[in-house]
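# nightly structure sweep
# worker-07 picked up a monomer target from the shared queue
# config: single-sequence mode, recycle default, output format = structure tokens
# input follows
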Amino acid sequence: MSLRFLRRRGSGSEPDAVDSVPRLRVFVPQSVQHVIVAYTGMATVPLVIGLGIGLSSAQIAMLVSANVLIGGVATLVQTLGVFNIGVRLPIIMGSTFTAITPAILVGQQGGLPAVFGATIVVGLITWLVAPWFSKILRLFPPVVTGTTIAIIGFSLLPSTASLIAGDDPADPEYGSPDRLLLALGTVVLFLLLERFAGTVLSRFAILIAIGLGTAAALPLGLADFSAVGDAAWFGIVRPFEFGMPTFTLMAIIPMLFVQLVNMIESTGDTIATGQVVGRHVGPHEVARSLRADGVSTAFAGVFNSFPFVTFGNNVGLLSLTQVTSRFMVAGAGVILIVIGFMPKIGASIASLPEPVLGAIALVIFGTVGAIGVKVLVRADMSRARNHLIIAVSFGMALLPVGSPDVYAQLPDGPQTLLSSGIAVGGLTAFVLNLLLNGGSADGDTTTGGTEREAERAAAPASADDGARQNPGESGEPRETPTADPERN
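# output follows
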């Protein structure tokens, strides 16, 4: 593994945008932006699981620190690569929301050692099956990948409402004009920066919008940083803090369903990242990404954390900023590791006003959905069967989003799978394409057509697809990213 820095113009071939290292004044703020976008999700999963199991505040704080720390390590593995593990693309890793319900149920019955034991097992299984799972990538033409990516973004949009309006509808401040106006103002500020700021400044539009939004929240009483003073400066994350793991089928089986969901989601996120950064993503790359998921998940079980997956919201951030260096995202991983050992920094990020974070999340999740729509444009929309695939997949995906308890009467395993809009939507698109198009790409029934379309589904987008070109230090347009000639 070697760092390849930008060479001067005219000194020979340069690494593309993914393998370049931005200037320090770009590198650090962009890394911080990715941390801020990812941190809320990383803190929420252990918080909700801890509350559901009935842990103390100190135990929950330890789970949060462990989760953030392992998220940083997993991000380094995914971005930099270790042997054949890690796709070496700018991907942030974090714990999955899909694991929340199974982890609470298992934890209430068998305790956290059972949860962590199951996490270790399913992580190792994911690592083992990754090469075989990735070989079905040819069965993911644009109508399937585009639908899945769009569902990832659009199904996450409703979650921003609880950040903007509040968690408790019975609270008198729920959906107050101050909260709504603060969120709206943050979105408007971001859009103004994107439209009128220079290219360099617009790269940091999210960071600026968060900073100014937080400043506006202080006089409104919507920002509370009192928890920062109570947090410790340093903390140590120890393996097996809750005891040695236990291994039971009762715990492992529901977590296997979680990992199936994660593998579908990670495949979609990895393909979406390839689309954004202009890299080919085929079976080889998907296998590397899934191996990183598996190893990170097993490692998480050792260090008191939960199953890990690629973070789709950070894919949206890449598309917005067009700063796609994997080393910049690796820098975000280093920051996450530091935060894992310094709870006070984590408390500062966690204290940012929720309406501001919700507004930024709204923009980012919508951007992920738009990337999916961009991929869908490549599908043959003259075919009515493709209309059905998209329509039914979106319907199945948004059903549990609009009515979270619709599958409450089902057994735990099917309930886990069907309650994830992302998983059920992606799986529906995959199965319907097999049934209606014979598994071929957009209805081409020849094997060659299938393989050609599968290649196009994972091929990098062209410069004409709307990727913004950022000027270099001299103000000259940056060249459109090209595929890396090396296969890592």
